[in-house]
Specification:
The protein is mainly β. The longest helix is centred in the middle third of the chain and has 6 residues. The termini are far apart. The model has no long low-confidence stretch (mean pLDDT 91).
Length: 203
């Protein structure tokens, strides 16, 4: 029997042996390959995870793990209770907009969509991710990423522009729109043609 020390956990190796007798006669070389077990806990590689694409109705995340393992993810409304490791295992994630698992390969990045339900524009969501090594029972801490969907639709009036406070040389006006934006206005004499909206604007 022989023992070899100083190997790396989760490393792949070749072991070769040859027999030599007293007359210096050599046998054929026999080679076997093996991989040492990786008993470390899985973790996210440096710089990961991150939201790689966000639209008004969806989001994509990019993830890389430090060892081959299983990734669990869940997308919840902002401020919802964070799922525990047991919640992930038992799929007990009520009110989620997306939930699933993916098999991760060590040091290989994966990009995927995090929601199965359409998201609402300009809303903030919390994405939770967890890595679990099903072979040795070790896992990462639950990682949280928050993101806000983008604005892709034009604003609309929720209160129609109305004239108020009419004076001899001035007039006041009020209006309200459904999101942050700028109201452009102009006053012209009755019967005169008003300026057309700029490119990209609507009347």
């Amino acid at each position: 029997n022989a023992a070899v020390s100083g190997l790396t956990a989760g490393g792949s190796y070749y072991f070769s042996a040859v027999l030599v007798d007293a007359r210096n006669q050599h046998s054929a070389v026999k080679t076997v390959s093996f991989t040492t077990p990786d008993t470390s806990a899985p973790n996210f590689a440096s710089g990961f995870p991150y939201m790689s694409k966000i639209t008004n109705t969806a989001g994509e995340v990019t993830v890389m793990a430090t060892k081959s393992c299983r990734l669990y993810y869940a997308l919840l409304p902002k401020g919802a209770t964070a799922p525990s490791a047991n919640d992930f295992r038992t799929s007990n994630i009520p009110g989620n907009f997306g939930y699933g698992t993916r098999e991760m390969t060590k040091n290989v990045s994966e990009t995927f969509r995090v929601n199965q339900k359409s998201l609402t524009e300009l809303e903030t969501y919390d994405l939770y991710l967890w890595l679990s090594d099903v072979d040795n029972g070790k896992s990462s801490s639950v990682k949280k990423l928050s993101f806000t969907t983008v604005d892709r639709t034009p604003p609309v009036f929720i209160r129609t522009p109305a004239v108020s406070s009419i004076k001899s040389t001035s007039v006041g006006a009020s209006a309200a729109i459904n999101e942050a934006g700028t109201i452009y206005w102009v006053v012209v004499k009755e019967g005169e043609e008003y300026p057309k909206p700029m490119n990209g604007q609507t009347t």
